[in-house]
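Give me C-alpha cells for this 257-residue protein.
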Amino acid sequence: MSSYAFDNRWHKARQRLAFLEQCLDPGTCSRIRALGITNGWECLEVGAGGGSVAQWLCSQVGAAGRVLAIDIDTNFLDSLDEANLEVRRHNLVSDTLPQNNFDLIHARMVLMHIPSREEILPRLVSALKPGGWLLLEESDIYPVLATASGSYRQVWERFKQGMIEHAGVAPEWARKLPQLLAEQGLQEVGAEGDIPMFPGGSPMAQFWSLTWEQVRERILAAGVDEKILDEVLGMLSDATEWFTGPAIIAAWGRRPS
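Here you go.
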C-alpha cells in the first residue's frame, strides 16, 4: 500500500511549497532556458504544485504559447489567471495525456512519489512533439547518507524508511534518470546534480522542518525517538548549524525529430 504523504490540504502545505520553490526554482528556470524555450512553445508542467514554475513558463512562451499545468490536486493552481495557462486535474497513473503535443514537459520531485514511475515515463515521451524536450528533476538521498551523522542522520534514515514503506517513495531512483531517458530513445541526453548545503533557519532548512512536521507520525512509527526528532527540528532553526540535503538530480533528453 502506498499513498502520497504530502497532502495539499495540510494547513502549512502552501508554506512548505513556497520554501521549496524559493530553493529550487532558480535551477529549474536555468535548465529550461538552456533547452531553448522561446515564444510559441507548448509546455506541460507535471505535478505543478504551487504553480510558480507554470507561471514562469507562461512568461517565457508568450501569447503565442501555451502552458498546461496538471496535478492530482489543483487547489493552489485554480487561482492563477495567466491568459496562456490551462489548469487541469490529472492523475498520472490513470489519466491519459495528449500525444505528440508538447515542446517541453517538465516534472520536479513528482515521479519519485509514484510507484509506477517507470510505466509513466514512456507516456511522457509519447506526449512530446518530435524534437520536444523532457526535463525531470528528482531528489536523491545519497549526499545525506554519505555525510550526515548523529541525530540528523537518524532522522533521515527513519524518514527514508517511512517514506518507502508507507508512501512508495523511491529516494535513490533519481540517479538512474539519464539511463532511463536514453532507454526511452531520447537523444541529446544530459544530466547534472546539485548538492545543497544550508544553515539552520534558511529556506531549505524550513522546508525540511515542515516536511518532517507533516509526516511526523510516520517518522516516529519508523523508530525515531520523539526527543531526537525534536532535537533535530530545533537544530534546523539554529543559524549556527549547517546541513547537507539530498541531491537534486536533473536529466533531460529530446525526442527524435
